[in-house]
Amino acid sequence: MLRGKHILLGVTGSIAAYKAAMLVRALVKGGAEVKIVMTPLAKEFITPLTLATLAKNPILVDFFNPENGEWNSHVSLGEWADAYVIAPATANTIAKMAHGIADTLLLTTYLSARCPVFIAPAMDLDMFAHVTTRQNLASLRAHGVHVVEPGEGELASGLSGKGRMAEPDDIAAYVSGFFGKKMSLKGRRMLVTAGPTVEAIDPVRYISNHSSGKMGYAIATELASRGADVMLVSGPVSLAVPAGVKRVDVVSAQEMYEASVEAFRDMDGAIMCAAVADYTPAEVAETKIKRKGDASLNLKPTKDIAAELGRNKEGRLLIGFALETDNEEANAVDKLKRKNLDYIVLNSLQDKGACFGGDNNKITIIGRDGSRAAYPLETKSEAAVRVADLVEKFFEK
Ligand code: CTP
């Protein structure tokens, strides 16, 4: 699958940089042409001469060649590449990527690359487990970066745990697998709703919920990576638009209803992942409500978007989500029927680690056909693969 592919390899300053030599060999053996950018620190761990010899291409480190002033164009490197593989990727580089910092050629190339990007993190176990590293990885994943998970084992620090860069052959196999992945959803148009809705009470206050949008964004990312045309109707979240996805931003349940009903006309299916408010203030006060004694809020129900799409489904695929706190399966099955869904993805607030805003989820998928599949606690990206597999199965028929 790598034959003829242009692979740009980014090497950062980690002890695992020595394994970049094996990775270059594996990629070249697979038939790829390899160009390499290194950070200045990476040169301390492995010499450019070693990598240049294996890749049969000169190594780029600086923005320009100090000898003759020749400019190393990050834009043309990004255009040349069919894939940009950053291995090893240090916590420092991952943090900079997540925040758009561009102080090395390796990073400017990341910002201008339009091709799929893969990172193979390598660091000490505590750095990998640190909340900021996890947040940075989650934000890169949400933006469509593929993370080749590190393995567990002995680390350079002498400690043992998760943080050891994936083996070079496994990284090459991962990238090769990506190119081999058939674009199984090519030409399929999918609507995904995600995030919370925000219902104004007055110009200052609102009603909303804790949805982070991460699950819906992971699904949009996975569907797009399989070639689908994805329209993401999103409530207010702090996530970047996943690569290759069109996003429509909405605020209230009514706006989400209008955007979704309109978009669904041209779709082959929809995945309703948004946490839509069930009630909205009957009236929005024009000025800030002043504090005086007891107060109450008059609410009216919002429109049920999933149920509306269910009524106009006409053989198209409709998948809903149910977040429950009790009586989980019975409530989910009831929603499945009531909204005319094909599948409902159930998550329970009873499950530890599968919480709002987190990166993990524990799902059970119940089908209209009576099927039931329960999965272990896994990342939202992994859960998104399960959902995308259902979509694929539906269109195979
Ligand atoms: N949903 C929707 N529009 C709404 C409410 C819910 O599209 N106004 C969708 C959600 O995106 C989800 C499914 O319906 O896919 C179930 O949402 P949930 O809030 O669990 O269901 P409700 O019908 O609102 O039931 P309840 O809040 O009483 O549990």
Strand and helix map with partners:
Blueprint: E1 6-11, H1 19-29, E2 33-38, H2 48-55, E3 59-60, H3 74-80, E4 83-89, H4 91-99, H5 105-112, E5 117-121, H6 125-129, H7 131-142, E6 146-147, E7 151-154, E8 160-164, H8 168-180, E9 189-194, E10 199-200, E11 206-207, H9 214-225, E12 229-234, E13 245-249, H10 253-264, E14 269-272, E15 279-281, E16 299-301, H11 305-311, E17 317-324, H12 328-338, E18 343-348, E19 360-361, E20 363-367, E21 372-374, E22 378-379, H13 380-396
Parallel strand pairs: 1-2, 1-4, 2-3, 4-5, 5-6, 9-12, 9-14, 12-13, 14-17, 17-18
Antiparallel strand pairs: 7-8, 10-11, 15-16, 18-20, 19-22, 20-21
Features:
single chain; 397 residues; alpha/beta; Rossmann fold; eight-stranded mixed sheet; six-stranded parallel sheet; 13 helices; binds cytidine-5'-triphosphate
